[in-house]
Amino acid sequence: MQKSATFSTLPVTRPPVHTDSITAMAVVRPGMVITGSRDKSLALNNVDTGECVTRWIGHNAEVTKVAYGNTVGNHFVLSGSRDQTVKLWQFHSREAQKSYEGHSLVVTGLAVTHITFSTCCNIIAQSSEDKEVKLWDPRNLDMVAQLPRKNHIQLHCEFIDDKMLASTSNGFNGDGCEISIWDLRTRKLLRELRGHEGSVPCVAGLTQQVTLKKLLMSVSVDRTIRIWNIEDGVCVWDETVPTDADLLQCVSFNDGQ
Length: 257
Fold this sequence. Notes:
Elements: E1 22-29, E2 32-37, E3 41-46, E4 51-57, E5 63-71, E6 74-81, E7 86-90, E8 98-100, E9 112-118, E10 123-128, E11 133-137, E12 142-146, E13 154-159, E14 164-169, E15 179-183, E16 189-193, E17 202-206, E18 215-219, E19 224-229, E20 234-240
Antiparallel strand pairs: 1-2, 2-3, 3-4, 5-6, 6-7, 7-8, 9-10, 10-11, 11-12, 13-14, 14-15, 15-16, 17-18, 18-19, 19-20
């Protein structure tokens, strides 16, 4: 079997597919990724060949987040932008299938900070700089729920399972640095995980094949990584990362390893 160029130990330079910086990326399958850019466009890229397979144009400002989803063979792309809209795109069309202005505050330019899709729930969650998390129906991009507004910008949202959603806040010195756990059925706040001293850009659920407990891993600009017991809100492990970098941006957990 031919090995994909994406697994090369050395970086491979490809021709640019955007005219400005790339701000977001989502994996479709090995060798195929979707990118969002400050040039206001999205692109489906063949990483192995460098080919731009499809380009979607429709936003009026920088694309801040992209997400890929697949329901019963229906492939779709979601994009969030500083034009305050969320757009739904199909692979077979270059026109947006749906556009929703779900974050229309007086202050313009508020960015969508994260978009995630749950296959088991068949629902989209999206966080924004307007301090809210919204839930969407992927079939038509109708908004199905708006979670209570927090006091700080919501940086990230992640489905824990088919019953709970986590969102993270942009705070400082321990204020607004909590992780919020939401009940997807009641749309109410279950509990807050507190302990970080800086903003929490990302969280990831640990698969229950590893432990009988529901655990969540978080990373913060305070340079710590923590693991939480979601059921009681207790931090069961923490580690300070030895780095001089100012910011830790993401964390992931791969198949129990």
